[in-house]
Amino acid sequence: MPAETLSVRYWTCERTRLLAKLADRPVDAPPSEANVVWLSAAGIEGAELAHRLERYRVYVKPGAVFGASDHVRVQIQDAPATERFLRALDGALGGR
Known about the structure:
Layout: H1 3-22, E1 36-40, H2 46-54, E2 61-62, E3 71-75, H3 79-94
Antiparallel strand pairs: 1-3, 2-3
């Protein structure tokens, strides 16, 4: 099987896992077919959420560059990166 196919399957599974874990948190993360997740947290601008995540050395793209200042774009990576992102998100949201 081509490496590209394995890679797509891997991040598809990881995206599904991430979206399932985000469902238990106070964020909005609609279903996605891409290798990114579009995420917002009520009452927090995307730039502010990105800044809070940076404190945990987790980097996301603020949504303002895509026309949605209340969102961030999260790149799908591997399982350890997903767990690191979720821990950082929990910390960032705890700082409301």
